Amino acid sequence: MQFAVEAWDPDYGTGGDVDALDASTDVVDASVELEVGKWQPITPKTGPATGVIYFVDGVRRIDARIWVTDNGRVLPGSCATVAAGAVACTPTEAFVSEVQVQRAVFTPPAESASSIQTDVGEFVHVPINTGSPEDLYLGIHETMTDLETRTVPEAGPDDLIIFDGPLRGRSVARSVGLIKTQHVQYLEIEEQQVVSQLEAGDRSPMFTIGAGGFARWSWYLRLPGPRTHGWAGIVRCEMATGKAQPIDQLDAAAELADLVSASLPRFASEPHKENRAPQNLYPIKGLEHALRRRLGDQRLVQRALRRAAD
Amino acid sequence: MIGRVLGTDDATPLQFWVAVAEGGVLQLDDVVALDRVLPTGEQISIYGIVNQVRARHEGATFDSDVFLIADGVLPAEVAEAALVQVTRVMPEVFIPPLPGTPVRIAEDDERDKALDFDSVTRRLPAGLSRENEPIFLDLDFVDGTKGAHVNISGISGVATKTSYATFLLFSLFNSGVLGKEAANTKGLIFNVKGEDLLFLDSPNAHLDAEQASRYQHLNLDPAPFGSVGIVAPPRRGDSAATPAVGSRTTGVSPFFWTLDTFCRENLLPFLFADAEDERQQYTIVVQSVTAQLAAAVKNESSPDGAVRIEGTTIRTFGHLVDFIERKLIPDDPDDKPDQRWTGRAVSGSSINAFVRRLASSNRHVAHLIRADIDNAPDYALNLDRNQLTVVDIHQLHDRAKRFVVGVVLRQAFDAKEASGVAKPLQFIVLDELNKYAPRDSSSPIKEILLDVAERGRSLGIILIGAQQTASEVERRIVANSAIRVVGRLDTAEAGRDQYGFLPGVQRQRATILKPGSMYLSQPRLPIPLLIEFPFPAWATRSAEAQRPSSGPDDPFEGL
Questions:
Q1: Containing domain of residue B59, as a range?
Q2: Please, where are the H alpha helices in B121-174?
Q3: Which of A53, B30, B222, B309 fits a disulfide with B537 by CB distance 3.0 to 4.6 angstroms?
């Protein structure tokens, strides 16, 4: 048996990703750039972006589980803090350019449900469908995505915006979603082999996912790093179609895909410094670190909530 | 506001860290202030000095992250912080400053408060900070009111110890801090090395305008010393007793002691460095001979300085040595030596040891103890003739140096003791204390120095002592000095506990101090201050001595 040990920390290899929830029915067209059957690795024709590259990400933390008493019923709820921000990387420096923090209380629909005032700030009330873990997860995620959208910087003509994770409907000029974890297989076996043959810095031909207004351009990219197996160091990028990137302008899309593919390898992380190397890029690692710090101390938040509950 | 007290390190009443605000800079030795309001409404002001500064990347986990950060790959922030040591709390409520409290640079009046200068009524300018702000000593701790004596340590070659000592004297004499007494206050400096102290009365030709202006910051006039008397021992073998100096030819007077003084004032023990070492048998002989010599001249007056003992008139030291030798070792081996001279129950070998040492000293001190010149008593050292007396001993043999230092100190001490009043003060500058008051042995000079250190404060004798290594000097002498000054130290020396008054960082810095910079520790402040003192306004070698120019440089100009 031939096998390789995953470079990622096992803790990150599990857990649901929203990809898994909505990707199953997507229509995939793999012949937009190269004919199916004629797929081959593409080396980007441009150099890295000359402008600022922004990385946008968010973090979340469940601070406390709560029980809401509503008209004699007791309902499960959760208090969580999410933070989102952006890192701006120029050729000489990287700095956290924007950070927003939001605290929220998630409950199933209830008459008496309201925001909670505490010493560490307000937990804004966000209704979710049921108290189930899946609904809670979705609720927190939506809040975080909202917050991320609010922190998206204004990109200039030479700049790039990289979202950590799928686009989830976000559509900004010169922005790309970066998916580290491959939960869904969009390609047929033949194309998959082309992906596994990619050299570091090469990308696969583009394909489209979905149709109509939600269609996205997508491609695979191999980041530099130890190549323990065929899909080691592979990330998927996706780019919204629509006003920002019309579906019929393939050349422009390919140019942007080349630019992104040429720009990202610089930020690939190394295994001894990052549990999810090389896919979790250094700026994102730094941003997550900075954002987690901004969530505040969990014990302090819990204490504030307990005091508010009295 | 220059920064805020940070909360990731403990803030204590005696030291705390300050995060430096963006765009601000705090450097070592900066003086800062902050306020804290108590729940009672009382406001506490805390003052301190920056003792350490650090900068680090926040957000970096690995050392090599610095490359990622510098390449613009990993976001991180540079955090700069300064460690502040508290110098003063007003009023004295010892509480920590609260994290987040804004910190400001203390300037002008606030700086005076921080360094406790505002409560000092008699301020002695002691140097400058790097920003040319004056730094003062409390005269109460120099003149004996609350404390006395200054001790200076530092490796040689950096030429700061004596320079600083002379600067302190200059400041004492000329700053006006002594008031009317300044005119009568006397200084005595031993020139132990080179000839650098022989030109204190000449302006320094190398003093530039910038250095001269530093004197103004201290309210001093850059000028040489006003009233300077320079004395040097006579040339050896010169019957006219002209002073033995090299580069300075005028204005130097010779000095020596007459045989009469030598006998009358019991100066013999100063020829024996270890005379009071109990283990040495011959010390008994020293004491007996000293007593006999004193007894011999007790009732005789000697206008010419010569002594008459048992009918013999003695005019030279060599002659005296011969005389003593004959008393101790009879010509006839069968005769017993005179027990009055040898002391009781003294073995022959002890007598021989004494004679050997006495005879060998002849070569080194014969020109210093004599009565073979007309008006010999006039050559006695007079410390009152000038405000500052420089005693040049640099050409003397070690033994003669010890003799001169010991005798001069003794005479100054006796004179002060006899006068019974402390004022006007007598300052004594002595370098190489380790030679004269070594830690591990006893000698007449060390006893005198100890007397000065322990009783000088009440008698008005103030010792400004210096040495390369305080660890080799008698502990009590250093301990009795209220003011400690440290120049550049050897790394091993800096680690010794004699420098306990220097906190760790200052000790480290003491090993890299540049010439002209010193640490000044005074009882009023819990931490030593870094001071600089201006370039001497007086010449420190003949090349610097400004000769008054006569007429235009070019006599043919205009022709």
A1: 3-114
A2: 161-174
A3: B222
